[in-house]
Amino acid sequence: MAGEAPAIALTGIDKRFGEVRANSNVNLTVASGSVHGIVGENGAGKSTLMSILYGFYEADRGTIHIHGNEVRIRSPKEAIAVGIGMVHQHFMLVDPLSVIDNVMLGAEGGALLSKGEQHIRAALAKLGHDYGLDIDPDAIVGDLPVGLQQRVEILKALVRGADILILDEPTAVLTPDEAEQLFGLLRTLASQGKTVILITHKLHEIMAVTDHVSVMRRGEMVATLETAQTSPAHLADQMVGRHVLLDVSKGPAKLGPVRLSVEHLVIKDAHASLRVKDVSFDIRAGEILGLAGVAGNGQKELLEALAGIITPTLGRILLDGEDLSLVAPTPADRRAHGLLHIPEDRQRMGLVSAFSAAESMILGYQTDAEFGAGPLLSSSAIEAHTTKEMDLYDIRPRDAALKTAKFSGGNQQKIVLAREIEHHPKVLIVGQPTRGVDVGAIEFIHKRLIALRDAGVAILLVSVELDEIMSLSDRIIVMCGGVITGERTPETTNDRDLGLLMAGVTERAG
Amino acid sequence: MSAPIELPKWADVSLVPILAVIVAFLIAGLVVLGIGESPVKATVLLINGALGSGEGIGYTLYYATNFIFTGLAVAIAFHAGLFNIGGEGQATMGGLGAALVCLRLDFLPWYIVLPLAIMGAMAMGALWAFIPGYLQVKRGSHVVITTIMFNFLAATLVVYLLVNVIGKPGSMSPETRVFEASAHLPYLHEAFAFFGITIPKSPLNLSFILALVASAFVWILVWHTRLGYAIRTVGHSPTAATYAGISIGRITMITMAMSGALAGLLAVNEILGVQGRLLLEFSSGYGFIGIAVALMGRAHPVGIILASILFGILYQGGTELSFEMPRVTRDMIVAISGLVILFAGALDGLIRRPVSGVFARLLKKGA
Fold first, then answer.
1. What's the pTM value of the predicted model, to 2 decimals?
2. What is the mean pLDDT of residues A372-395?
3. Cβ–Cβ under 8 Å, residues A209 and A36
4. Which of B225, B237, B361 to substitute to test the interface with A, most A CBs within 10 Å?
């Protein structure tokens, strides 16, 4: 389709927030009818650029052409008017309403619903036919699996006439199977003339589905490549600006005695529904046990029960043969016994965003003798400790007094990691250590975890990233619906096998 | 979705509140103009009344003492994410605690009676805030509801006791007998006279020094102790507190008790310092204005002292103003205080946003 104007042409986009230059002189051209990936570390400016395109912000400088026409996009409404639709990472859906109600929301077409509903129903049927986007329009959104909820988001955009779709980290909440289906759909949309922009930090997704890929680094567009001409390793180097080791090298595990034993653990949540059903496993000293599963299948509850934050309904947790519910019932006791916890949700649990980095660095250790005398805390001792840790873990910026919230995701995670590792764990339970963390920091965090394992620490690694589970674990267990659906070793399994276990299919797959 | 510009700290703690007060005064000036008086003259009278004489300053600081105690009480609870609006009731109970000690023991020398009376005031104030804290932790009843209900309970309890139990025998008015001199906290002019220095007479008493000590105590407690760290963690993020092994229930009860003890200290100024007897409604709204003081002072002791002095000026200057300018009534002064609270607290963003805008433009030019 040579000669046709590109779907999107951004020229010389600048956007500053105070002293931070979020986008500087960004140029981006997206061909009509293609799937275009945008990758970059956290804070590289991807989200800002897409927010400018979708009208959340206006650029300080630069122009936007859509299908060859210069446009000004001052609000999401104007973005929709020029045919841009956005599928957010966190769905903007009303759970108790039906699919058709959700799609119609904001496009009711007058005071009475019946006419608008007929119109939307017809439009949904047509989209279902054209793109294979079948869905029951009268299903209640809250009852749908996550993959279908995402489909509702896509339908919302298409019904409003979008021919350019922006998807922000769309696979974060999907099983590998659902992600595969989504990619199929994106390819179908592109082949029918729609333009898709895919923002992701997962390089294999870029390789799997995009035609072109643009790399952003520190607010600048550093490269736009044809996907077929590049490789994940090359993209990673471009993102970070130096050579990155994607594969983790680790020697064979030197297994010690059993450190942590979980026996027939049953956990009910506050609404008395069963979240964990009869889970048992052991972890040995010097071993990383990977726990794979789609988010929300009981991993969070399991982690919190191990850390002493919630009390299991039944079952025992043993550390070196001692029942922790007897010898160390509270989180503080567990910490004193050497069972340390890097929580899934570092923003709300692992750190206090309003605290300085130094204050967050002692969270959980605020009663340690080294940080003060008697009831007093010594700011100078805490800051000295923090500065030392910041050097060791390369936490940037090196400012112990800076508010925790001002650090990037990767550096925040390093604060938690530094804090826990430096307190010499016997058992470390880790939830989503690299969620929202940039490639450079992921490499660092993985190396640290391996080093801990080699030093004889028993590690439970809970992650929704299969790559991470596969490359770090010595043994893998998979959870689905609160039960362990299988145990594997990385050598005897693959993504597809684990994906089936994550979906609750327990027959062995090839 | 716009990213707000962060103001430099000095602008945040001084420029914005000062502008808020100026805007409040401009609007109050319009009201004064509306009733046919000169706003300029009114302002001069107000400032002069509050700061123009030694006596005026004494009164201003005497009022400020009350605001410091109740402001600190609200602030410390605020750091733990608790909203204690029961300062009135806690102060009232503090008065009862001080009075019970004095009625029993004021035959003893001052160096025994006064410390015990101060502790009595703190203990009763602490109890009156601890109970709502305990009820929130154990029974899930929110402190905002219970502390305000406890205000009424304190008021009725003290009326009952004054009428039926500890009232002055043979007197119709609901108040206790006057305490002996040993239970009187010296006025500042008395204290200075002891050292041979003469300062004008006013109700300002040694409670003011106690208020400054309490401010320093709160500053150290909140920012430099392990307990303060736990309090702030609970206030900012209960989930992180649980993770860190901090008991939210324990911190809630301890903080409420400390908050109540601070509010109870108001009784030291009013009962031990000025009245010399327990009477009704001596807390007269200071407990509620403490909320505005804490808000305006950004829950920091230095801010609270400054905000307290401002409200002291409004109280004292306002009283003088209504003498000199009869058309400006007491209610007008309440209205002006209200405007200050409105602009400094509720409409903070109204001032902050334009100031941030100016700073952003200056930064851009400078860059």
1. 0.82
2. 94
3. no
4. B237
A463-479 b/e with 16+ CB inside 10 Å = b? bbbbbbbbbbbbbbbbb
Peptide bond into A331 cis (omega under 30): no
Distance CA B192, CA B189 (A): 5
Residue from B217, B226, B251, B361 to probe the interface with A (highest A Cβ count within 10 Å)? B226
Instruction: Return the SS3 of A20.
Output: strand
Find the DSSP H helices in B265-347: 266-267, 286-296, 301-324, 330-341
CB-nearest to B243 from A309, A354, A377 is A309
| pLDDT per residue as tens digits for the range A192-237 | 899 999 998 778 888 889 999 999 988 889 999 999 999 888 888 8
CA–CA separation, A310 and A329 (whole Å) = 10
Which ipTM score applies to this complex?
A: 0.85
Q: Strand runs (DSSP E) across A377-457, as ranges?
A: 427-431
B38: tokens are 């000169």
Chain A positions contacting chain B at CB under 8 Å are 17-19, 51, 56-57, 307, 309, 330-333, 335, 341, 343, 345, 348-355, 359, 362-364, 366-367, 372, 375-377, 379
Q: Test A366 with B1 for CB contact under 8 angstroms.
A: no
Residues 163-222 of B with CB under 8 A from A: 220
**What are the b/e assignments for B59-91, b being 16+ CB within 10 Å?**
bbbbbbbbbbbbbbbbbbbbbbbbebbbbbbbb
Measured CA distances, B254 to A426, B88, B135 (Å): 34, 19, 13
Q: How many beta-carbon contacts under 8 Å exist across A and B?
A: 81
Q: Which pair of structure tokens corresponds to residue B64?
A: 């400020």
- Do B242 and A353 make contact, defined as CB atoms within 8 angstroms? no
B5 and A CB contact within 8 Å: yes
Quickly count: other Cβ atoms within 10 Å of residue B362's Cβ: 10
Do A431 and A300 form a contact (C-beta atoms < 8 A)? yes
CA distances from A69 to A14, A72, A135, A213, B133 (A): 20, 10, 35, 23, 63
Contact B367 A19 (CB under 8 A): yes
Q: Is the backbone of residue A308 left (phi > 0), alpha (psi -120 to 50) or beta?
A: left
A376/B226 touch (CB, cutoff 8 Å), yes or no: yes
